[in-house]
Each structure stands twice: as structure tokens, then as C-alpha cells.
Write a structure and sequence with these properties.
Length: 385
């Protein structure tokens, strides 16, 4: 009974890749949505005139854990022309474009495929964004060109690989030279200021789930030693809250914060397709990513609520399709800044009619995936995290 169910579910997910949002107007200033392996990289400095850190002079002297860092959930997995605007994609723009637009947290899923770490959405047969090492190299190139920017990476370690497996790729990409090693191997109440990290040239903070601390790669930080998260896989627009979902080692957000943990909001809405299959909800994106603090389900509302409940602003926020909303406005409001030096991107929900450009991801059609990998299935929350 299991194999027929898996086959049926896979076929349904494949067909779901062709379900599109309502076509929007073509943006007047489109940004490339190419994948990280060949993406154009902005060589412009992060700020002009007044020296800025993470797009604001006001953030330079703030501690890293006293800033809300806006993040792109599943940042490597795109919904664009090369993936037939697949419903498995979580972003319209690649990591380089996201960074230039103000995103400072990039989250992605990593799988071991034929002995190599690849950016794959649940499985490499579903959506393959290429080699992890290439993606890291693109981020390093962006950081090389934007010297006053502190970037955070969070990786989902889907196959429980050790820190050394990741560390070798961080080293070979060259990005390890930016890696920050904290004084403590567990949560701490005090982190350096952005300016301190910039001056020390340790501008990359990396958290990886399901690794143990390795003294050979001390800049690769076990995520749940430092970060707690709210629930993900939310299906009800009224279902966002500030309750700690993980790690299980912490009883509540209050106890985690007291222990020095940094809070992360998972603020992305999914829709149930049946048989346990969920896909990102694009129909409510403008509400979900919106800055309103009075609309149920809005990012601004959850951000404000958690700041009130926790007594501190969330350190990290993850969203789907960061350009819509725009989500960056919520981080700016929480940080109390007026940002400078960002690249403008369309705030539209992009569809096939948007002509936003292609990507260099695995471009097989969903029918092709269904035909060649009927036994591969992405069920429930495993699809997205």
C-alpha cells in the first residue's frame, strides 16, 4: 500500500508545479533571478556617502544579537522560468540579488548526493539548486565586493553530515576566511557589534543544524546551541505565534532568552494540497509579508507581538518570497532604521508572465520528475525545512 501512495503523492506534487499565481504586471525594473552558480553579482558598495553597516550607519555599533536580520527561507530554491515556476520554490530572486536587496540571512537545505553536498529541496530529484560549494563561492564574491556587510547563513543538514564535511567546502570556496568564531560554544548574552565583526574581517556567522562542535572548524556553529525557533509549516494565516517550537532542550522562549539564545521567527505560510503535501501559499503573500502591526497573519504583527512577549526584538526572521510585502520593511521597523544602499527589486508576485529571467537550476519539468522519480516524495513539513 505504501508504494502506490507514494507514487500518487509524487504525481500530485509534480502536477502542482504547474499551478500558477494570478499573473502580475511586468516589473519596470526587473532584477535577475539566476541561481547562485551564475548569478550576476552587485559590485556596488553596500552604502554610499555615510558609512553604513548592513545598510544603516545606526547598526554599526549595535551588537549582532540586538539586530533583526531578515532572512530568505530556502533561499537557493527558486520559483522562476527554469523551474516552470515550480510550487516547490520559495524565492523569486537568488541569493546574490537578495543580499543586494537587504537580506542578511540566507537559509538553505543541504543533502548528500553521490558523496557531494548539494542544495536540494527535500530530494535532489525534486529541486536541485547545484553544489553547496558553488553557492558559498557566490556569497563570498558578494561579500568581497560589499565590505561593510555582516552575513548569516543557516543550513539544514538533511543527512546529518559532520562539521568536517561542511568545513572542507567552506575552506575550498574561500568563504571560511570570513568565518566568526564566538568565545563560547553555546548561547551567550553578548555578541560583538557589527563594526567589530567588520573590522576583524569575521563577517560571516554560520549556523548548521545537526552538527557537533568541531575545533577544526570552530566557525561552524551548531544551530540549536545558539538559536531557538517558532513553529514552521503553518497552514492557517492566524496560526503565527511566539511560542518556542525547537530546540526541545529549552522549555520556553523565556527560558531560552534568559540562557542567551537568539529567537528566530519562521514566518511563512503553506497551503495543504492533500495527502500531506504542502506548498508555499502565494495567494496571501502581500498580507503575510506585510508590515502592518494590526492585521492578523502579517509579519509586522508577529514581529511586534514577539517583541512585546519576549521583551526583545527577534534576532532572525525567515520568509518566503522576501521581495513581496516588502518583508524588509518589517526588519527596518524593528531596527528603527531608514536603510541606504539597497538594490530595488520588484515587490510583485512573479509568474510566467512576469518575464523575470531564467535560472540555472535543474530545469526538468515536473512531468519529467514524476516520470523518472515516482518513488521520490516530499510529504508535509519535510518539504520545507
Amino acid at each position: 500500500m505504501l508504494l502506490p501512495l507514494l507514487s500518487i503523492s509524487t504525481a500530485l506534487l509534480s502536477l502542482a508545479g504547474f499551478v500558477q499565481a494570478i499573473p502580475q504586471a511586468i516589473p519596470s525594473r526587473p532584477a535577475s533571478s539566476n541561481t547562485p552558480t551564475r548569478a550576476p553579482i552587485s559590485l556596488a558598495p553596500a552604502a554610499t556617502g555615510t558609512t553604513a553597516c548592513n545598510n544603516s550607519p545606526d547598526l554599526c555599533n549595535r551588537n549582532y544579537n540586538n539586530i533583526t536580520h531578515m532572512g530568505a527561507h530556502n533561499s537557493a530554491f527558486l520559483r522562476d522560468s527554469a523551474t516552470s515556476f515550480s510550487t516547490a520554490g520559495n524565492q523569486f530572486y537568488n541569493a546574490s540579488v537578495a543580499l543586494s536587496a537587504g537580506i542578511r540571512l540566507l537559509q538553505a537545505q543541504v543533502h548528500l548526493e553521490n558523496g557531494v553536498l548539494r542544495l536540494c529541496h527535500t530530494t535532489c530529484g525534486l529541486l536541485d539548486a547545484g553544489l553547496l560549494v558553488d553557492w558559498l563561492g557566490q556569497i563570498k564574491s558578494w561579500m568581497d565586493a560589499n565590505v561593510n556587510e555582516v552575513v548569516t547563513i543557516i543550513l539544514v543538514n538533511s543527512d546529518n553530515q559532520p562539521a568536517a564535511t561542511f568545513g572542507s567546502l567552506f575552506a575550498s570556496s574561500g568563504i571560511s576566511t570570513y568565518g566568526y568564531t564566538p568565545a563560547s560554544t553555546s548561547a551567550a548574552t553578548t555578541w560583538p557589534t557589527l563594526q567589530t565583526l567588520i573590522a576583524a574581517k569575521t563577517r560571516l556567522i554560520t549556523f548548521i543544524a545537526s552538527i557537533d562542535y568541531d575545533t577544526t572548524y570552530p566557525y561552524l556553529l551548531p544551530e540549536f546551541n545558539y538559536v531557538f525557533e517558532t513553529a514552521f509549516g503553518v497552514l492557517d494565516i492566524n496560526g503565527f505565534n511566539c511560542t518556542l517550537d525547537r530546540p526541545s532542550t529549552q522549555r520556553s522562549a523565556t527560558t531560552a532568552l534568559s540562557a542567551g539564545y537568539m529567537g528566530m521567527l519562521n514566518h511563512f505560510l503553506d497551503t495543504d494540497q492533500g495527502l500531506g503535501i504542502t506548498v508555499p501559499d502565494v495567494g496571501n503573500l502581500t498580507i503575510v509579508n506585510g508590515p502592518s502591526t494590526s492585521v492578523s497573519g502579517a509579519l509586522g504583527t508577529q514581529g511586534s507581538q514577539c517583541m512585546t512577549e519576549w521583551g526583545v526584538k527577534p534576532t532572525f526572521i525567515l520568509v518566503n518570497f522576501f521581495n513581496v510585502g516588502p518583508a524588509m520593511a518589517v526588519a527596518d521597523n524593528l531596527n528603527g532604521i531608514r536603510a541606504v544602499g539597497r538594490t530595488d527589486v520588484s515587490t510583485d508576485v512573479l509568474t510566467a508572465s512576469s518575464k523575470s529571467g531564467g535560472s540555472i537550476q535543474n530545469g526538468r519539468s515536473w512531468f519529467g520528475i514524476a516520470g523518472s522519480a515516482m518513488g521520490v516524495i516530499a510529504i508535509g513539513n519535510f518539504v520545507w525545512m
